[in-house]
Fold this protein.
Amino acid sequence: MSATCTSEITSILEKAIEGAELDRDEIVRLLSARDGEEKEALYKAADEVRKACVGDEIYLRGIIEFSAYCRRNCHYCGLRAQNRDIHRYRIPDEEILSRAKLLKERSCTTVVLQSGEDAYYNTERLCRIIRRIKDETALAITLSIGERSYGEYEAFREAGAERYLLRHETASRELYRSLHPGHELEDRIACLRMLKRLGYEVGSGCIVGLPGQSIADLADDVLLLKGLDIDMIGVGPFIPHPGTPLGSHPAGGTGPVLNMLAVLRLVTKDTNIPATTALGVLDPEARRRAFAAGANVFMPNFTPDPYTAYYEIYPGKGPEAGAIAKASDSGYAVLFEGMGRRIGTGYGYRTRKACTPETQSCPGGPQ
Ligand code: SF4
């Protein structure tokens, strides 16, 4: 065992595996893990916790991006209202339903209905779609449609939606304010609390590599997600879109995202953590590595052509997403089996079971 692995990182990893809370400095240290033995030890520890807490199953959650309209102007997103250079669309209800049936045939147990913040989809319209999908497919339904009122969240829940994704994007109040003109982090957090109160399984998460973001900010993201008891955590790299104010900034790297996934697994234990599409856009191999660093969810894109290429939150997503949608479930099964994993067959709700890996975190075993 090398001196590097028996150092500070090892003792922090052992503390995390034993179930002790990590403080901000310790989280910063793990997030800063360097290439080589440090990252190897971090990912191995996260993989052990993943195995003990959520098992070997990888759950497929099929996404349908049903509307590319958005009233907001997030500085990093190609769908922002002020971007006049993208094609906006709304997918007809019948087509949404037929895609939901297709993704069920392809081993997905959950449909994720995602859109910009589009007021066209009022409570009545959206509840009608939710009820039809529930009645005709019995899929678990996840909504990812932005900030709404308590009354709307309640109506969607009663109509049959059981999960909701709403990323907080960054835990830095200043950064949040600068990226989301006219909006405050507190409003986002208030929505997440409402969703928890209504009994949704709640997903949140952040972008890694934003201009002006520090590693300490990422540690605050980890602590915020843990503190809010978030059930599903999505983390993706910043990818600049030319039609946005951040279009000329460099993309975030995949390494910091993998470190973040691993730390989130160690800190939150039994949450559901996807290997995100954005990671695969930067580097398809990085998404495979994410499954060896704590991830347990895969979200294939089932948005039909031609819409999938129009849902341009960042460039390069369309072709990658299209390729995934064309893959068969047996293709996923082969891919996952090669990693010693298998497709999850249930709905994949958070189990909240107590879990402690039996082995130690350093390559080579116990010290
Ligand atoms: S990140 Fe979401 S809310 Fe912000 S502009 Fe894009 S689609 Fe709209």
